[in-house]
Amino acid sequence: MIIPMGQADKILILGARGNLGGQLMRVLGNNYRLICWDHEDLDITNRNEVNKKIYEVKPNIIINTAAYNAVDKCEEVPEEYQKAKLLNGDAVGFIADAALSVNSLFIHYSTDYVFAGDKQTGYAEKDEPHPISKYGETKLLGERELELRARNSLKYYLIRTSKLFGPKGESDMAKPNFFDIMLKKSETVDRLDIVNEEVSAFTYTFDLACATKELIEAKHKFGIYHITNNGVYTWFEAAQELFKLLKKDIILNPIASANYPRPAKRPVFSILLNTKLKPQRKFIEALRDYVELL
Ligand SMILES: NC(=O)c1ccc[n+]([C@@H]2O[C@H](COP(=O)([O-])OP(=O)(O)OC[C@H]3O[C@@H](n4cnc5c(N)ncnc54)[C@H](OP(=O)(O)O)[C@@H]3O)[C@@H](O)[C@H]2O)c1
């Protein structure tokens, strides 16, 4: 059935100039009426503005990709932690309330960093989170805000994902991904020390955007979903795959996390088990697509 554009669902994307936001615009643009807002259009930490502006546009679906993602800064600087709590925690509640008021479906993203990382077999959607970093705590606050409104009949999908990579979003502040950082470093050195720990799955933002579309269209049950590409890797193993694909000669040296100290603790094993949806394609296929774009 072809739905005329005028009758297609109206989707509001928040954080549209970010990395995932950009891919959602690309994937959803042809089939839906999109309203794409970023920081300058709506500061999601302003409760009144969130209510007012969402009420004005009355979207059928709200997708929130806006987030505070500076994991180490948040750990070290108390003011940054407060900012992160507001953006990753309280603001999710503001949007959820606005979604309830206009009866929108609310889609929000969380992270593997809500888990402690002590379960080698991986974490299922129903497993109890125990973050070990302040950033993880703030993302869990957002999850709790959602769950609170779910008891009030909020229609929602909470998607946990990990290690995003893909084309950079339009915003200058959009976080550079791990592979871009490795490539940049490899321009000036012929040997890279890379952490060979922190086992989890990488996720191509284009694939995550497609999976989000599928979740909407297949009308899956509301709740928590784990979406990552298929296959588990350390940072070192993933970098090996990158340089193999690029056929670039470089010495990669595996190191322990302890030899690359960072302010925030990272989970050692944070594999997100997907027990509800069909598996995503393999990480290596997604990385090949990304490398072709570079
Ligand atoms: N990156 C990862 O590896 C990773 C891993 C697991 C989960 N996630 C989650 O996946 C989601 C998407 O992440 P991403 O990497 O695509 O994020 P991103 O590129 O950092 O984009 C975030 C966007 O949010 C906007 N924003 C910041 N503060 C805002 C505010 N107060 N009001 C409105 N917009 C604001 C930013 O705009 P400005 O730049 O203009 O401030 C930016 O465009 C997030 O929920 C993130 O926590 C990410």
From TrEMBL:
Q: Name one GO cellular component term.
A: cytosol
SUPFAM superfamilies associated with the record: NAD(P)-binding Rossmann-fold domains (SSF51735)
Q: What processes in GO biological process is this protein linked to?
A: dTDP-rhamnose biosynthetic process
Q: What is its EC number?
A: 1.1.1.133
- Keyword Glycosyltransferase recorded: no
Sequence ranges assigned to domain RmlD-like substrate binding in this UniProt record: 10-280
| Coiled-coil intervals, chain numbering | none
One Gene Ontology term of the molecular function aspect: dTDP-4-dehydrorhamnose reductase activity
The pathway noted for it is:
Carbohydrate biosynthesis; dTDP-L-rhamnose biosynthesis
**One Pfam family in the UniProt entry:** RmlD_sub_bind
The protein's UniProt keywords, in alphabetical order, are: NADP, Oxidoreductase
> What InterPro entries does UniProt report for this protein, alphabetically?
dTDP_dehydrorham_reduct (IPR005913), NAD(P)-bd_dom_sf (IPR036291), RmlD-like-bd (IPR029903)
User: Could you tell me which Gene3D superfamilies the record lists for this protein?
Assistant: NAD(P)-binding Rossmann-like Domain, UDP-galactose 4-epimerase, domain 1
Any idea what job this protein has?
A: Catalyzes the reduction of dTDP-6-deoxy-L-lyxo-4-hexulose to yield dTDP-L-rhamnose.
Q: Which family does it belong to?
A: Belongs to the dTDP-4-dehydrorhamnose reductase family.
User: What's this protein's name?
Assistant: dTDP-4-dehydrorhamnose reductase
Q: Provide the species name.
A: Candidatus Falkowbacteria bacterium RIFOXYD2_FULL_34_120
